[in-house]
Write a structure and sequence with these properties.
By secondary structure, the chain is an alpha+beta fold. The chain has three domains: 172 residues, no CATH class; 94 residues, Helix Hairpins (Orthogonal Bundle); 148 residues, Histidine kinase-like ATPase, C-terminal domain (Heat Shock Protein 90), CATH 3.30.565.10. The protein has twelve helices and 14 strands. Helix 2 runs antiparallel to helix 6. The longest helix has 53 residues.
Length: 454
Amino acid sequence: MKAFFSSMTGRVFLTLLAGTVISAILTQLLVEEQHNDIFREYRDSQALERSEQLIFSAEIVPASARAAYLLSANRPGIRLEEAAEQLPVAAAPSKFTSALAARIGAQYKLETVALRPAACDVPRVVHSMFGSTRRVWPGVCESVNVRMRDGELLRLQILPPVSSVLAEQSDYRVIIGMFLLSITVLAYLVARMTTRPLKQLAQAAKDLGNDINHPPLALVGASEIRQASAAFNAMQARIRQYIFQRTQMLAAITHDLQTPLTRMRLRLEKVGDAELQQRLVGDLSAMQEMVREGLDLARSMDTNETMAPLDLDSLLGSVCCDATDAGQQVEVHGSAKKALLGRPMALRRCLVNLIDNAVKYGQRALVTVDAVSGSARIRIRDTGPGIAPGELARVFEPFYRVETSRSRESGGTGLGLTIARNIAEQHGGSLALANHPDGGLEVTLVLPTYYAGK
């Protein structure tokens, strides 16, 4: 879950969900506030018209039957009754009283009672999507003394409206739940639709690192996505062309050098001075070794070899047996019991270089194989002096040698680790160096596995 919310999909999902919910809440608050204002104004207008009708109807009813008529004509919220007692009036008429007086005429005397009805201050239950609250009715709520034309005093009471039965029976929790569910699904679909092209580009970049000849991206989707895919395909083509040209150039140079070097070796056989001849032959051998490793470096950057399923334990066992037959001290412990997808010759060259380095600088190679997190891990440790921490990263540079005082016979050309790392990265793996706590240098090769072992 944490990984999802830290991803681009999760962040877009949360942004869309939070933005939509907040916008919906604000919109609903504004709508409810506007609805309450409209309802209050409508209720006040209705109270004004109903009061006018009650007064006019009471006027035409005989005084003896007026009480009975009003008893049947009154409705909840607006009542017109005979005044049982005289109540103190306000110094100035209210807005409602003034509006009513203007409608019924000057023949009726209206006065606003100073004391509000008790029902005006009783909180009402108000229902909304965010729950039920209790509020005092904000509209017209007051008592008005009405002096009829025949002199009788009536009292008009404008009370809060009765709560809606439908509103009380409405279950807003279901409405809110359905709203949040629909918004969540919509936000997730939009987030996936938005971030899917980014994932495809990221996967294409990863595939490009493993295989420069990977098929180009399909130009589908929105115009911006098609433009980005076209730019990525163009970049892949340029990189592929650059690597091909560099590999061809390096291979051509190293290959063409072999012919004059062979002729020089034949001519050195005619040198009369034995000591001078031995020195010249040694230098020539070093040059030939550089040429061979230069060809290996060019091959390590070539990805034309076909990928095939490989049993890693069998491949490593074969390489170690060849090293033992050649007189090298190699010990193998453990097994990965995994198979991987790789280039057989390239992986063999990688393992051979690592074991040769361990034997060359540490006299022996201790190889440990295991499986970790869906990958195969190969650790090759020697018993040599190790490498200074500041030079652990530099040894991967082409032609870099830790001890320049060593002879070419013992120190090599400085291309072995560079070649091994190139091959590991082409297979989606990694190569790291570390000084072992018990002494010696340990090389860790991690390769992703794709198939279960036998």
